[in-house]
Amino acid sequence: MDHGEKLRFNFVTKMKGLISLLLLLIAFVAGKAVPDQTHDPSPNDLDHDSDFNTTAVKSLELYGYDEPATAVDGDDPWSLSVRRGAKLLQGMKASNKDAATLYNMGNSAESPYDGDLHTTLTSWGYNDNSPALAAHVDKECNMDSPSGHMLKNTFAELGMSTKPKSQGGPNECFQIEHYDSPSVILDDDGTRPDKIHQYYNSPCGSEFRITGAEHTVGINAESGAVYAMSIRSPAKAARTLWRRAPKEEELPHIRSFSDIAWAYWNRAAVDDLKNIKYFLVTMIINTETNQHVKQALQNLDPPKNEANGWPGAEFDMDNDAGKALLGSPVGRWAGYFLMQHKRQLGGSKWISKVRVFKSEKAGSLPYLLFYVEGPVETKSKAGGENRSERRNDSVYEGVVGSSHDGKSVVREHMYHARL
Question: Among positive and negative, which fits the CA dihedral 225, 408, 400, 377?
Fold first, then answer.
């Protein structure tokens, strides 16, 4: 081969290599840029450490509790929340097995975490409602306080007491923090390090870092209500404390707000776990949820720019506004609470409607009140005794699966709940 032929051979060889590399690069970019068109919103779509038990979930994208939703198949945040709400409704009304199939969770959608969970939470690095925390947070459960919540009219209409536990009332608040836990590893001198330097030995044998997460939950067992009063998820808190995004495997295994709310429901309502009637979300600061509230109110006839005082506006779950509020960042946990505890709650219970309102306090932020229904009591064919009828998702297919134009059927009147 002469010199000219060698040059031509080398040139052709290099060009083939460049072309192959270019084709590989194009394939890689295409794979990253083109979304899966068959994707359906599932527990993996958001930072569900704030609202969903992720133990059975193989992969989890970590997004902040108060950050906008990530669009799926070009959905805007409202449409995505509508889809999530519709799916939650289906899961709540379905049998446990069918809910598991719906969410790709194997044979059961039931949370592996049950009971008061104090030992479990402590072992995973939480300071779980210590006496000091309980005393400090008690004032948050005074539901008629100028310095906090002013819900006298709301609670009177619902037949609920506004008094906190310290005043002999039924409202008990619980505080949990993912730092300053008894399980935190002490320094050599026996002192507890600052929060930013705190670690603990997890039940799985690995050393984990504290995230800084904080939650406040209120329970009124007498009236069957759970209050979401403050939520700061481990994923969101860790990003602030660690100054970087956490990996899923770095977070405590028990971290969903629905599981933590369930623990406190078990402690306060241990005598009647089935008596769940309301989920109240107080003073909403979440940006995306407030945008959903605004859009829901603007769909009214006539449109409203902001929520009114009690009774506010009511949205059924057979329209898009109700589904969007249920599927919002501060609403989903309530759906998972019901869907993942069917056995303990006596069957499939679901959220039937949501009310958007403001408290009696000047400058109040919006509140959401979700109403729980089911299971339906029917007469058995054999002995005439009452039994719980567990309806599956097919019975409600026309309700939870149909599309709507976003127009809401709203009844703005005083509602007398059946207590």
Answer: positive
What is the 3-class SS of 144-171, one letter each residue?
Answer: ECCCCCECHHHHHHHCCCCCEHHHCCCE
The residues with which 232 forms a beta bridge, in sequence order, are 214
Tokens of 298: 């603007």
pLDDT in tens, 13-58: 555 555 544 544 433 333 332 222 223 333 333 344 344 443 333 3
Nearest by Cα to 221 from 161, 180, 307: 161
Amino acid (1-letter code) at residue 88: L
Would you say 74 and 65 are in contact if contact means Cβ atoms under 8 Å apart?
no
Asked if 289 contacts 66 with a C-beta cutoff of 8 angstroms, the reply is no
Q: Residue 44's pLDDT is what?
A: 33
- Which of these, 200, 206, 208, 204, lies nearest to 183 by C-alpha position? 200
Report the C-alpha gap between 275 and 155 in whole angstroms: 17
Sign for the pseudo-dihedral over CA of 261, 267, 273, 279? negative
Instruction: Report pTM.
Output: 0.77
User: Which pair of structure tokens corresponds to residue 199?
Assistant: 């670690």
Partner residues linked to 378 by β-bridges: 387
Token output for 395: 């019975």
**In Å, how far are 45, 90, 236, 319, 332 from 71, measured between CA atoms?**
9, 21, 19, 21, 17
Q: What is the pLDDT of residue 211?
A: 98
Q: If you write DSSP's letter for every residue of 267-301 in order, what string do you get?
A: HHSTT-TT---EEEE-S---HHHHHHHHHHHHTSS
Q: How far is Cα 120 from Cα 320, in angstroms, rounded to an integer?
A: 38
